[in-house]
Amino acid sequence: MKNRFLAGLGVGLIMVGLTGMANASTYQVVSVSYSDWNQARTAAQSLGTGYDLASITSQAEFDTIATMLGNSHSNRDEYWIGAERVSGSTFKWVSGEAWGYEKWWDGEPNGDGIAAAMDWRNGWAWNDEGSALGQIKGYIVEYNPKSAPGQAPEPATMLLFGAGLVGLGAIRRKKQP
Ligand SMILES: [Ca+2]
Ligand SMILES: [Ca+2]
Q1: Which sequence spans correspond to the domains of the chain?
Q2: Which listed site, 32, 34, 73, 175, has its alpha carbon 20 to 30 Å from 43?
């Protein structure tokens, strides 16, 4: 019974791990010769279902993108992300995810433009930006499989993980006097 439980739990954890990978976003840095945010967004979405400008909702996601961008940049090089101004200092993610995590440079957002970009100042953080500036070097694409129905094998995973939890319950009952 215990071995069967451990095997079931192991399979469950492996499947959860695989699902985590399958559900993980992937990113691309695209260089452009224009500076318009809407044009960049249209280009990102044209890659297919699940593709859009990056919605950066955690420090881990920010770190992943900052690492991809690297540090071989000129001061104020900027890359559009999917942070669209609602009004004033209020922004929303193009993915529709809740706005919570923020990584603005000091003094930003200061009211420029309609969207925000990753902005290099010997480090990366966000800056709201106008769309006609030479600093715009490109944009960050995020492929989010959760936005592409049929890509994520979640139901099968939950079933297997559930079987492991059932095994855990059985062992706990057995140990009771
Ligand atoms: Ca994201
Ligand atoms: Ca700004």
Answers
A1: 1-23+150-177, 26-143
A2: 73
106 alpha carbon – ligand 2 mean position (Å): 10
Give the tens place of pLDDT for each residue, 91-132: 999 999 999 999 999 999 999 999 999 999 999 999 999 877
- Give yes or no for residue 158 having a pLDDT over 90: no
User: Which ligand places an atom closest to the C-alpha of 129?
Assistant: 2
> Mind listing the pLDDT tens digit for each residue in 47-89?
999 999 999 999 999 999 999 999 999 999 999 999 999 999 9
User: Which ligand lies nearest the alpha carbon of 112?
Assistant: 2
Strand 78-87 with 136-143, pairing: parallel
**Ligand 1 center to 51 CA (angstroms):** 10
Model confidence pLDDT, tens digit, residues 1-38: 566 766 665 555 555 544 456 679 999 999 999 999 99
Q: How many whole angstroms from 109 Cα to the centroid of ligand 2?
A: 5
Q: Which ligand is nearest to the CA of 142?
A: 1
Complete DSSP assignment for 16-81: HHHHHHHHS-EEEEEE-S---HHHHHHHHHTT-TTEEE----SHHHHHHHHHHH-S---TT-EEEE
